[in-house]
Amino acid sequence: MARNELRPIIKLRSTEGTGTTYVTRKSRRNDPDRMVLRKYDRALGRHVDFREER
């Protein structure tokens, strides 16, 4: 299996609608569903949920 197939690059977008994004990799085996992480949104100045977009 190639590296990009096992751990693809994904974009996390803020659920608050500010347009802030993070770019990361995820494991398809451990997290087959869409990933949701709580990260810092610089536009709001606080932590919010970031959801994987496809």
TrEMBL record:
Q: For this protein, what is any one GO molecular function term? A: structural constituent of ribosome
Q: Which PROSITE patterns match?
A: RIBOSOMAL_L33
Q: Which GO terms describe its biological process?
A: translation
Q: Which domain of life is it from?
A: Bacteria
Gene Ontology cellular-component annotations: cytosolic large ribosomal subunit
Sorted keywords for this record are: Ribonucleoprotein, Ribosomal protein
InterPro entries listed in its UniProt record:
Ribosomal_bL33, Ribosomal_bL33_CS, Ribosomal_bL33_sf, Ribosomal_zn-bd
Listed Pfam families: Ribosomal_L33 (PF00471)
Task: Please report which protein family the annotation says this sequence is part of.
Answer: Belongs to the bacterial ribosomal protein bL33 family.
HAMAP family reported for this sequence: Ribosomal_bL33 (MF_00294)
Q: What is this protein called?
A: Large ribosomal subunit protein bL33
Instruction: Say which species the protein is native to.
Output: Streptomyces tsukubensis
